[in-house]
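User: Please predict the structure of the protein below. I'd like the answer in structure-token form so I can feed it into my own downstream comparison script.

Assistant: Understood. Taking the following sequence of 237 residues as input:
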Amino acid sequence: AIATLIAWEAVVRFKFPEPVLSLPLLLGAGLGLVVNGLNLKLLHKHSADDINIKGAFLHVVADVASSVGILLAALIIYSFHWLWVDAATSLLIACLTGLSAIPLVWNSVGMLLNYAPKSVDPEAVKTFLAAAPGVCAVEKLYIWSIASKQVALCAHLTINPLIASERDRLLATLQTELSQVFGIEEATLQLTNRYAVGLASLQPLGNSLRDQISATATAELSGLVGAVGGLAQRSKR
């Protein structure tokens, strides 16, 4: 939005040039260059650790470039009185501001849509988990970013039969190795005995068998009631 506003004002200045006080502009640009240079140095060390700091860093980079552009424009206007340089510099600053925001916006959208981070290969993680001792299959693997340096994982693992202590040990080992190898700090793993996987498919058969037994019992009970009723009528005669 800011880049669009600056670009619009630059186009208007091209059509309707306005007087520029080059000396105050020169002093202001010089002061801005010093301040933004200090901010740039402070943010540079931490710009890769957090997306918010990265956004601030890119903003300061654009400000430094803008200060340099304004400084040059002020010198040119002061020396040659070319007013169109003011509009051209504003248009250049607008383009620079817009372009510097594109990577940040793209990373933010990817984080909001729960895309897998570029630093983690899902296929490599799946192969790593499948190769772990005791793991038979890896299903429903999801990897997404919570923050710039915080990656989360959720997976369903089919494993060989293990006692409770062995399952806990396997779970802790996998979570530790995922953190050390891939940098995945938040790993939620569901461990399922491979012999228990097919039990769910037996449920429809169990329902069918129960219904059949119920129907048979009802028919036998009806027959028994009918027989008792017949005997009662004969005894009355």
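That's the full token string. The mean pLDDT is 79.
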